[in-house]
Amino acid sequence: CFLQHGNAGEGQSTPATCSPLCRCEDGGADCSGRGLTAVPTGLSAFTYYLDISMNNITELPANVFRNLPYLEELRLAGNDLSFIHPDALSGLHQLKVLMLQNNQLRTVPSAALRNLHSLQSLRLDANHITVVPEDSFEGLQQLRHLWLDDNSLTEVPIGPLRHQGNLQALTLALNRIVHIPDHAFANLTSLVVLHLHNNRIQEIGKNCFTGLENLETLDLNFNNLMTFPEAIQTLPKLKELGFHSNNIAVIPEGAFHKNPLLRAIHLYDNPLSFVGVTAFQNLSDLSSLMLRGASMMQEFPILTGTVKLESLTLTGTKISSIPNDLCDVLSLLRTLDLSYNHIQALPSLQGCVKLQEISLQHNQLQQIDRDTFHGLSALRILDLSQNQIKSIHRDGFLFLSGLTNLDLSQNALSGVPTAGLTALNQLKLSGNLQMKQPLSAQSLPKLRSISVPYAYQCCAFIGCDTLLSSTQEAARKRASGGEEDVERVSLVMHCSPSPGAFKPCDHLLGSWMIRL
Amino acid sequence: HRPHKQSMSSGCQSGCLTCSEYNGCLSCKPRLFIFLERNGMKQTGVCLPSCPSGYYGTRSPDRNDCTKCRPECDSCFTSNFCTRCRPGFYLHQGKCLQTCPEGRVPSTAQRECVL
């Protein structure tokens, strides 16, 4: 609702006024997107919020806000501002938020900012700033949040930031910074968030982050870093670190041993070839670890102390074995992706009782023992495809009562145990060329989709003229009481490769070997 | 179902690069943030120089997005750094807390933990 005109003398404030070019409400004036070329006049002296964004104002003259001493938030984003008079913002002693983003500024208007002693948030992002004068933020003792991203800076404005002890969040992202010298942020002891993503940073000093004792989030994504940023060792409170999409080949031993509070590390899209086995040790708050394509890595990383890991992805390495105590350490694990390695055998994963997904495709597994998946009742998806598995213990899946998807395709199996797979919905067996005998869907009540090595094996699932001999048919009927059988076969929606004219269900000349 | 007619910036709202009659802005001019306004089931894209209250902006070379702050934040710098809290919460080093740490007291007016 619009601000009502009150009668003086009834304890109401002096009659409020508003510019016809704006919409005023509760001390706020919205004059945005009206094609204005100058700051509107005639606003109430008690205006505390003024939005003139998305207009066509190219410059701010001196004292243009002198009648608005109570202004706390001023939005000038999305104009064409290229010049701000040194006295343009004078008188705004209570201004806390100043938005100058999306304009045409080439330098920080340091003179105009000097007396904004209450300013907490300053947005200068999406301008064309190439120069940050030494005295740019001198008067701003209360500054907490500074946006300088999406400009044309070629270096960190070290001098101008030197006295910003209250600054808590800073973004210098999307600039052209190439190098971060030592002690670049030395006095920013209150800084909690630092974004440097999308620059051209190739190299950083070993002490470039010295002084950032409260930093929790550091974003170095999308740069050209050639070596691991060892400078992070001076960041004891770091919780989130990103350096994905860089050119880092090696993660050294003990890489994060000085950052015990790390919760998230984003390091994908780096040409990793080697990862130190002790790199990820004792990160007791880390919940997810994703390492892809460290092709030279031969040993499984030591993860002792990294006890809260819920998701572990470690693919594309030369790792050939998994530590026996993996699940003693990672009892909270929910997803485990160890595909595309050289793993030859599995320990018991019994302790990982929360596991829901296991991906082990593309390894060199030979067999599955009785207790490999013992106790994993929460497991839903198990991918063991593209291995060399010859045998699976008959109780190998006994405890997988929650398993819905099982992929055993492209192995060397001649048979598959089904005990325990009461919830199985999808089963893939194609590519097990030794598996020639007919398959029975008897103990797979929920099966909906199956792929088999040979088309004739589908006959048991999709109700074509039965392949089963009369004795097997009678046995099945007795076991299921007769009616359930007809209903269950029709429920199996999909079986491939499906039999047809050239892939008949019946064998020719009495031998199931002879089929087209 | 209305035909999905897409047009270039001339026929669109200010700030749009492409838009459709039904969904508003589909992409924005450089350096503007795209924000999806909800109106019941319908979503309408708008292009803004800054994200609305309760959202923060993430800039990248090819797109600028608005993402929701945490529930207890009125405004934020990133997903885990608030700049202003909702009533009943108090700001301390980018966190909106229901009680202030030792040595600080809650200021209801500023919604901050102060000395």
UniProtKB/TrEMBL annotation, chain B:
Residues 14-113 form the R-spondin Fu-CRD domain. It is found in: Secreted. It comes from the Eukaryota. Coiled coil: none annotated. Belongs to the R-spondin family. This is R-spondin-3. It comes from Clupea harengus. The gene is rspo3. The chain holds residues 27 to 141 of 325 of the full protein.
